[in-house]
Amino acid sequence: MINVIWFFLIFIGITFSLLTGNGNIGEIVLNSGINAYELLLSIGPMIVLWSGIMNIANKSGLLNKFSTILKPLLNRIFPSIKNSKAMEYISSNIAANMLGLGSVATPFGLKAMKELDKENKHSKVASEAMITFLVLNTSGVTIIPMTVIALRNYYGSVSPSSIIIPSIIATMVSTIGGLTLDSIIRRKNAK
Amino acid sequence: MLNSYIIPIIVIFILLYGIIRKNSVYDDFIDGSKDGLKIVIDIIPTMVAMILAINIFVGSGIMEIFKGFYKDIIPMILLRPVSGNATFAILNNIYRFYGVDSFLGFLASVIQGATDTTIYVLALYFGSIGIKKTRYALWVGLFADFCGICAALIVVKYFF
Lengths: 191, 160
What we know:
The structure holds two protein chains of two kinds.
Chain A: H1 2-20, H2 25-59, H3 62-77, H4 84-98, H5 102-119, H6 128-138, H7 146-154, H8 164-190
Helix pairs in contact in A: 2-7, 3-4, 4-5, 6-8
Chain B: H1 3-20, H2 25-59, H3 70-79, H4 84-98, H5 103-114, H6 118-128, H7 137-159
């Protein structure tokens, strides 16, 4: 899919530019290298720094503690899951996602899917619990969108972190919206 | 106001917790940042590829068919579920052309922070256990993103 999208962005762009005479594609191609360099220069060090800080949280057991706090709430969202290992992985995944630890979150997420797959008797059809987990995962609350803040800082924003609270509110609405639709569909299916 | 305190408070809290647990916080930091460096190196090729594609697409002027801020926000919304790097490239362009503290810059920042690469995550997670029928998962995931974008529009108008 990403192959097709990437191809069409370039193909449509160049074709449109040739037909209309808009934009200097040669120059754009050359400048893209510089843009990429600048973008990586602005967010790269922040990713390194934040990974360091979050590793302290991970190694000290703070992440575990955080996922324990989340568990009662998650038990209510996933009443059907009897497998305690699955719940363990799900809460670690959500906790890591909230702290913006994508690389820590993904392995937990994949392990959770494996456990849910066992409960689902290795069916090729997704179970309801899997879908709820994915909705929660993709709409999940990130407390601090660090890369965006780093990029804002690079462009000289007066207040780079002013997006934190608006982002938390928007992402919570997204989580609630997703879970609500999910539970409506579940109830309909149960009838 | 409150926003500028959040990061320092989180950092000091994490450091104190580590110290109380008698962890070697400096060593943990270095270990973690090495992983961070690996992440950065991993995203370089995708970032370069996406910036190239986005710049050609936007530079051709094709989005001029839309008026106002839609011409910048629509590509971002359409690409968000598939590639976080593509929307990051768009975010970068918005900051460059309109300024980071403009309404559009603020809105795009919140959208980037509040939504996720839903289709990518779905493909990765379901693919890992060989699920072929994903049922209503995609629609609920995209609906959640849609809610997030609508909320971003309202919240940004209030905060800006």
